Amino acid sequence: MESRNKTRISEFLLLGFSEEQGIKPLIFGLFLSMYLVTVFGNLLIILAVSSDPHLHTPMNFFLFNLSFVDICFTSTTIPKMLWNIQSQNKAITYEGCIIQMYFFILFVCLDDFLLTVMAYDCFVAICHPLHYTVIMNSRLCGLLVLVSWVISALNSLLQSIMVLRLSFCTDLEIPHFFCEINQMVQLACSDTFFNDMFYFAAGVFGFLTLTGILYSYSKIVSSIRGISSAQGKYKAFSTCASHLSMVCLFYCTSLGVYLSSAATHSLHSSATASVMYTVVTPMLNPFIYSLRNKDIKRALERIIEMATTKGPTVLGLK
Fold this sequence. Notes:
The chain is 76% helix and 3% strand. It is mostly helical. It has one domain: Rhodopsin 7-helix transmembrane proteins (Rhopdopsin 7-helix transmembrane proteins, Up-down Bundle), CATH 1.20.1070.10. Strands 2-1-3 form a three-stranded mixed beta sheet. The N and C termini lie far apart (76 Å). Residues 1-7 have low confidence and may be disordered. This is G-protein coupled receptors family 1 profile domain-containing protein.
């Protein structure tokens, strides 16, 4: 009889990207740099939005939450991967793997929901500008974020519980740089029917949120086409250009993960493709918003100016 273990599993092995020792310092330096850029870039967005009263708008409130989620998102996976490379130890405890998987699913879902909520905000701003302040009041904005957190937490909890009930055999190597749920389910030697069904249902729900975003933008495009002046069209489009860039980046890279893993049989193909939406997308979001949003750009310039002028004073140089 095949050996099974439900609760006595001590650890999994995260295979990561490459077995070659010569390339590991390069991978370590690259991911450390991207992680630091992600954390500091999103922290600057958080500081800019919280410190400038002119940026206390619904869209920037959602951006504030998105930046916080992106910091947590990357912090769920990258520090552990960097530690494994530095210590030359691929192991992660069973409990640590489940916890990492829970928070990864939580923050992926939150990213999805927040992008959907931001699309609704753009829709109201462009299609119903006269009623914008009435519809997008502070109570509704807070409620939308709260509901996003609750649904994401419940979804993550249910999927984690579904994994906890699985039995695992002797093959505990995960061909990834973090505990990705699909890879873990594939390692199970017990029945995974309910896990597959729940995973499929979560995918359908994600598709529905994308449909909501596409519907919002179809209405936005129709409204923009109805504007007579070129300046009015540009102003309306620039309102949501940053968000549209983020949506394309997030969903295109997420779709690329599944297409690449389906098109090739390489064990590391999914891990390599996952870098795009787990690391690159959160890193680029602050640049996209700071470059496209003049108000945030000015707020960031003030923060940097204050840091450079106060720095020498703190050090006693002035």
